[in-house]
Design goal:
About 30% of the residues lie in helices and about 20% in strands. By secondary structure, it is an alpha/beta fold. It has one domain: DHBP synthase.
Length: about 210
C-alpha cells in the first residue's frame, strides 16, 4: 500500500522531501505534483519502475518518456542542444512544457524513441517537484498521470490514492496543480513542431 505525504506546495518540508527521495532511490514509483498536473516519477535508470509506469498508463514502446530536470544546464547534459534551441529553452523554462530533443549517451538507450533517438525533457516550476529533483541530484523519469481512455490527468491526490494505492509506493499531495498536461514541442529537427497543446502557450515558438 502506498505511503501518503502532504507536502506544502510553496515551502516543501525538507524532512518529507528527503524521505520521498529515499523511496525513489530504493526503487519506488511516486506520484508528485508539477506545475501542469500530477505525474508519475521514478529513478532514471530504474527499468522495473519504468515498466510499472507503462502498465499503469498502458503505454506502447513508441511513447516518449520525459526526464524532469532541475534546471536548463542539467537538461543540456541529456539532450543535444544547439544555440538556437538553447535560446528557445532559456525563454520558456522553467514552465509547463515538454521538449522532444535528440538524446545524448547519458540517457539509457531503452528510454530513447525507438526510431528517432529522441527523449522528452522538461524543467518544472512547481516547488515540490524542484525540491525532489534537487535532493535526488539527477533527472527523474516522469510521465503525466493520464490514465488510459481519460481526457485529463488526475488532479486530486485523495482520488489518486483510492485508485493507485496498490500500484505506486508514494503519493505526494501538493494541492491542486491543474488538469492539463504540459504542452509538447518537438525541437529535434530544429524548427519547432507542436505535438500536443497543453497548459503552456505555443506562441513563444511561433506556433
Amino acid at each position: 500500500m502506498a505511503q501518503f505525504f502532504s507536502i506544502h506546495p510553496e515551502t516543501p518540508q525538507p524532512r518529507l522531501i528527503k524521505q520521498a527521495v529515499e523511496i525513489i532511490r530504493a526503487g519506488g514509483l511516486v506520484v508528485y505534483p508539477t506545475d501542469s498536473c500530477y505525474a508519475l516519477g521514478c529513478q532514471l535508470d530504474d527499468k522495473a519502475a519504468m515498466e510499472r509506469i507503462r502498465r499503469i498508463r498502458q503505454l506502447d514502446e513508441k511513447h516518449h518518456f520525459t526526464l524532469a530536470c532541475r534546471d536548463l544546464s542539467e537538461l543540456g547534459s541529456y539532450a543535444r542542444v544547439d544555440n538556437q534551441v538553447f535560446r528557445l529553452l532559456k525563454s520558456t523554462t522553467p514552465g509547463p512544457y515538454t521538449f522532444i530533443l535528440l538524446a545524448t549517451k547519458e540517457v539509457p538507450r531503452r528510454l530513447w524513441h525507438p526510431k528517432k533517438s529522441t527523449i522528452g525533457l522538461r524543467v518544472p516550476q512547481h516547488p515540490v517537484a524542484l525540491a525532489l529533483l534537487e535532493e535526488l541530484g539527477e533527472p527523474m523519469l516522469s510521465s503525466s498521470l493520464l490514465m488510459p481512455d481519460e481526457e485529463h490527468p488526475m488532479s486530486d491526490a485523495w482520488e489518486i490514492r483510492d485508485r493507485l494505492e496498490n500500484s505506486v509506493d508514494l503519493i505526494i499531495e501538493g494541492g491542486f496543480c491543474g488538469m492539463d498536461p504540459t504542452t509538447v514541442i518537438d525541437l529535434s529537427e530544429g524548427a519547432p513542431v507542436l505535438v500536443r497543446q497543453g497548459q503552456g502557450s505555443a506562441v513563444p515558438f511561433g506556433l
